[in-house]
């Protein structure tokens, strides 16, 4: 008799009634879901800003002001993505007993809900895992992270919108119900408030241990970040070294010249010639798409002064080409509004010292409100883009 009962139990899948913890409750799922949706929404909007900075469109031009705009946006992007990780795990834990609902499908609307959940979970895991690896600059795949990450973000947001639309009445009802109203009978595990408090502590703790890569006063606590604000060669982190970019010999060659080309002709300037031009000092942040950023003092020649030597147009876009021959960011285009801004500089010095070769010696671009990947290092030539 006992064997029969045991075999029967083994053949029977669990039901929702078998999960007795009050954490497995629509009230918890809805509250964690609101926080997760906020984190995903923040990451999506700030990621869109980052993408449009790197792939601009004519109908949505960016301004060089505020100078710290991209630093704030990208810092929020990475912080929101990291916060979404424990929130996603918490939501999956609170909601997974719903997988054992019977019947499995109750109609077309239920099928749409289940499908949106499957896509949401799959794309969220993909985005969080690949985004986390991007922070550490480890790419164990052959596809373009930027393109795929951007495309999957739209799928993720679409699945969130569909899921919320289908479940809105349930979500609204769950949010109206008080958390302290317990189910009848015994229950196992933490209380609903205790579970939510634990998630809040986890999210805040993870943020505190990583946000120092952007917020300088917290850099000492950023033990989970690969880079911290204010730490690195000349006080600035380095993503790619001159040796890694294959430009070390050319960058340190005394025969190096910066070519500046425009409709008014071409000039070739040595570093000494650049240093003989009027110098300016600007205090600007440099912010990387991996999430780290820091503010530094840069000295060099205004981009506008170099453009004026070869062009009478002050509204022209300007292309900056690196000595680095390979890679996605071996050149960049500085929009006209940026090129004529007085804080856009071809930098020769950092923190009062000559640029270290890993920071772009002999000359690099630095401009306000711009991703670090577009602050082209190891400049070879500057070209005024034809109208």
Write a structural description.
This protein has 387 residues and is of the alpha+beta class. The chain has two domains: 197 residues, no CATH class; 143 residues, Sulfite Oxidase, Chain A, domain 2 (Alpha-Beta Complex). Helices cover 43% and strands 14% of the residues. It has eleven helices and ten strands. Strands 2-1-10-5-6 form a five-stranded mixed β-sheet. Helix 3 packs across helix 4. The longest helix has 32 residues. The radius of gyration is 27 Å and the shape is elongated. The mean pLDDT is 90.
Cα-atom radius of gyration: 27 Å
Cα end-to-end separation:
89 Å
In the residues, how many domains can be counted? 2
Q: Give me the secondary-structure category.
A: alpha+beta
Give helix % range: 40-55%
| Proportion of strand residues | 5-15%
Widest sheet: strand ordering: 2-1-10-5-6
Global shape: elongated
Number of helices: 11
Largest sheet: 5 strands, mixed
Low-confidence stretches: none
Secondary-structure element pattern, one letter each: HHHHHHHHEEHEEHEEHEEEE
Integer average pLDDT = 90
Q: How many strands appear in the DSSP assignment?
A: 10
Key attributes of the depicted protein:
387 residues, alpha+beta, Sulfite Oxidase, Chain A, domain 2, 2 domains, five-stranded antiparallel sheet, 14% strand, transmembrane, Mopterin_OxRdtase_euk
